[in-house]
Design a protein that fits this description.
alpha+beta; 2 domains; 6-stranded antiparallel beta barrel; 14 strands
Length: 254
């Protein structure tokens, strides 16, 4: 390579001297082009090579981005409280109509092709999201806990006091993002008690023991036979990402 560079330098000097002396340069320039052309292509990559390298760089960046996204999703999936349940992991891809307390419906990226059916429960890392109400081939709509049509049987506190959880109660003052549990036994629950699902026959729509939220206040109206509790939901519906759709309860080992 060193000898080649020295030869090229010599040829360049000859061309310069000939130009200064006024000698005809046509033949010399032709010879120089014949020699220098391949060398230029060897030393400096052509435009096609540069474009190919740029495309390869973009492909590698996209692959890294996909791997990082897969790692993040897998990490969130590990936090899903799905012990004893058969589930399908999904991503929230859209929010439906929003009410006073937030979205009343979300859409996930799994559907009939993934074995999803109506009345399958949906769980996030914090706890219960809601239940599937409509299933397409590639996606499904989920009615979230707290929507006007959603009522969930729950147990509250260490005693497992049974009540009904709703998104609102006309007789109870509460913040827009709070849930309400009604028909509670008098003086049986307190602030800080955990609220979990009571469970449905066959586990549909709701399996038992899934966290719904935490009691923040208990109202004991004078003369009433039952108490009403305000509940801070376990799941922030506005930041949902990775969820699990419960397709079946795991069979107990034989």
């Amino acid at each position: 390579m060193r000898r080649l560079l020295l030869s090229l330098l010599g040829l360049t000097l000859v061309l310069l001297l000939a130009d200064v002396a006024g000698a005809p340069l046509g033949p010399l320039r032709g010879a120089g082009a014949a020699v220098l052309g391949p060398v230029e292509r060897l030393v400096a990559p052509g435009e096609d090579r540069v474009d190919a390298l740029a495309r390869e760089n973009l492909r590698l960046e996209e692959q890294v981005r996909r791997l990082e996204e897969q790692r993040r999703v897998a990490s969130q999936a590990d936090d899903l409280p799905v012990a004893g349940l058969t589930t399908t992991t999904a991503r929230v891809v859209a929010l439906g109509r929003a009410g006073a307390s937030g979205p009343e419906r979300v859409t996930v990226d799994v559907g009939r092709r993934d074995g999803i059916r109506t009345d399958n429960a949906v769980i996030a890392p914090g706890g219960l999201v809601g239940r599937v109400t409509r299933v397409g081939r590639w996606s499904a709509d989920v009615e979230v806990v707290g929507s006007p049509r959603a009522g969930v049987g729950v147990r509250t506190g260490a005693k497992g006091v049974i009540g009904t959880l709703t998104g609102s109660d006309p007789t109870t003052s509460h913040d827009a993002d709070e849930l309400v549990v009604t028909q509670l036994g008098r003086d049986e629950v307190g602030v800080g008690d955990e609220v979990v699902t009571l469970g449905s026959p066959g586990g549909r729509p709701y399996p038992p023991g899934v966290t719904v939220g935490t009691v923040t206040d208990v109202e004991r109206p004078p003369g009433a036979l039952t108490d009403t509790a305000r509940v801070d939901p376990a799941v922030d519906l506005t930041s949902l990402d990775v969820v699990a759709v419960v397709t079946a309860r795991a069979e107990p080992p034989s």
